[in-house]
Amino acid sequence: MFEGLDLSNMGKMMEQLQEKAKELQEKSKETILTAKGGGGMVQVSANGAGEIVDITIDDSLLEDKESLQILLISTINDVLKMVEDNKKSQAMGMFGGLNPFGGGA
Protein backbone atom coordinates (compact mmCIF):
# COMPACT_ATOMS: atom_id res chain seq x y z
CA MET A 1 0.00 0.00 0.00
CA PHE A 2 2.85 2.42 0.82
CA GLU A 3 5.53 0.95 -1.45
CA GLY A 4 6.26 4.22 -3.29
CA LEU A 5 6.16 6.45 -0.20
CA ASP A 6 9.58 7.95 0.50
CA LEU A 7 9.57 8.76 4.22
CA SER A 8 13.07 10.23 4.12
CA ASN A 9 11.68 13.19 2.20
CA MET A 10 8.79 13.90 4.58
CA GLY A 11 10.73 16.50 6.60
CA LYS A 12 11.79 18.26 3.42
CA MET A 13 8.21 18.17 2.13
CA MET A 14 6.88 19.68 5.37
CA GLU A 15 9.43 22.51 5.13
CA GLN A 16 8.37 23.16 1.52
CA LEU A 17 4.73 23.12 2.56
CA GLN A 18 5.34 25.63 5.36
CA GLU A 19 7.34 27.85 3.02
CA LYS A 20 4.59 27.80 0.38
CA ALA A 21 1.93 28.51 3.00
CA LYS A 22 3.86 31.54 4.23
CA GLU A 23 4.27 32.79 0.64
CA LEU A 24 0.54 32.38 -0.01
CA GLN A 25 -0.32 34.24 3.17
CA GLU A 26 1.85 37.18 2.15
CA LYS A 27 0.52 37.19 -1.42
CA SER A 28 -3.08 36.97 -0.24
CA LYS A 29 -2.90 40.48 1.22
CA GLU A 30 -2.03 41.77 -2.25
CA THR A 31 -5.05 40.10 -3.86
CA ILE A 32 -8.14 42.33 -3.92
CA LEU A 33 -11.58 40.80 -4.44
CA THR A 34 -14.65 42.98 -5.02
CA ALA A 35 -18.37 42.22 -4.76
CA LYS A 36 -21.18 44.51 -5.89
CA GLY A 37 -24.74 44.68 -4.61
CA GLY A 38 -27.89 46.48 -5.62
CA GLY A 39 -26.83 46.77 -9.24
CA GLY A 40 -23.53 48.32 -8.22
CA MET A 41 -24.97 50.75 -5.68
CA VAL A 42 -22.83 49.11 -2.99
CA GLN A 43 -19.34 47.80 -3.60
CA VAL A 44 -17.17 46.02 -0.99
CA SER A 45 -13.53 45.07 -1.53
CA ALA A 46 -11.49 42.70 0.64
CA ASN A 47 -7.97 41.41 0.40
CA GLY A 48 -7.22 37.70 0.16
CA ALA A 49 -6.75 37.54 3.93
CA GLY A 50 -10.40 38.52 4.43
CA GLU A 51 -9.81 42.10 5.56
CA ILE A 52 -12.31 44.65 4.21
CA VAL A 53 -10.22 47.30 2.47
CA ASP A 54 -12.84 49.49 0.77
CA ILE A 55 -16.58 50.18 0.73
CA THR A 56 -18.31 52.36 -1.84
CA ILE A 57 -21.93 53.44 -1.35
CA ASP A 58 -24.07 55.30 -3.88
CA ASP A 59 -25.28 58.60 -2.40
CA SER A 60 -28.92 57.72 -3.11
CA LEU A 61 -28.77 54.97 -0.47
CA LEU A 62 -27.73 57.33 2.32
CA GLU A 63 -31.36 58.30 2.92
CA ASP A 64 -32.61 54.68 3.06
CA LYS A 65 -30.90 53.14 6.07
CA GLU A 66 -32.75 49.80 5.92
CA SER A 67 -31.92 49.17 2.24
CA LEU A 68 -28.32 50.21 2.84
CA GLN A 69 -27.97 47.77 5.73
CA ILE A 70 -29.45 44.90 3.71
CA LEU A 71 -27.20 45.61 0.72
CA LEU A 72 -24.09 45.96 2.89
CA ILE A 73 -24.72 42.66 4.70
CA SER A 74 -25.36 40.83 1.44
CA THR A 75 -22.38 42.34 -0.35
CA ILE A 76 -19.99 41.75 2.56
CA ASN A 77 -21.12 38.12 2.72
CA ASP A 78 -20.54 37.82 -1.03
CA VAL A 79 -16.98 39.19 -0.86
CA LEU A 80 -16.14 36.98 2.15
CA LYS A 81 -17.35 33.93 0.18
CA MET A 82 -15.07 35.02 -2.67
CA VAL A 83 -12.16 35.25 -0.20
CA GLU A 84 -12.87 31.74 1.10
CA ASP A 85 -13.11 30.31 -2.43
CA ASN A 86 -9.83 32.04 -3.31
CA LYS A 87 -8.13 30.52 -0.25
CA LYS A 88 -9.37 27.05 -1.17
CA SER A 89 -8.18 27.48 -4.75
CA GLN A 90 -4.73 28.60 -3.60
CA ALA A 91 -4.48 25.70 -1.14
CA MET A 92 -5.34 23.20 -3.88
CA GLY A 93 -2.68 24.76 -6.09
CA MET A 94 -0.15 24.54 -3.27
CA PHE A 95 -0.77 20.83 -2.69
CA GLY A 96 -0.71 20.14 -6.41
CA GLY A 97 3.05 20.82 -6.51
CA LEU A 98 3.95 18.28 -3.82
CA ASN A 99 4.48 14.61 -4.55
CA PRO A 100 4.71 12.39 -1.42
CA PHE A 101 5.50 9.36 -3.57
CA GLY A 102 8.98 10.43 -4.63
CA GLY A 103 10.06 11.90 -7.93
CA GLY A 104 10.79 15.34 -6.44
CA ALA A 105 8.50 18.30 -6.10
UniProtKB/TrEMBL annotation:
Compartment(s) where it occurs, according to its Swiss-Prot or TrEMBL record = Cytoplasm, Nucleoid
| GO CC term (a single one) | cytoplasm
Q: Has UniProt tagged this entry with the keyword S-adenosyl-L-methionine?
A: no
Domain of life according to the entry: Bacteria
Q: Does the keyword Transport apply?
A: no
Keywords from the UniProt entry: Coiled coil, Cytoplasm, DNA-binding
| Broad class of where this protein is predominantly found | cytoplasm
* SUPFAM superfamilies named in the record: YbaB-like (SSF82607)
Listed GO MF terms: DNA binding
Q: Which residues form a coiled coil?
A: 7-34
What is this protein's function?
Answer: Binds to DNA and alters its conformation. May be involved in regulation of gene expression, nucleoid organization and DNA protection.
Q: Which family does it belong to?
A: Belongs to the YbaB/EbfC family.
Q: How does it assemble?
A: Homodimer.
What protein am I looking at?
A: Nucleoid-associated protein Nitsa_0136
Organism, as annotated: Nitratifractor salsuginis (strain DSM 16511 / JCM 12458 / E9I37-1)
Task: Name the lineage.
Answer: Bacteria, Pseudomonadati, Campylobacterota, Epsilonproteobacteria, Campylobacterales
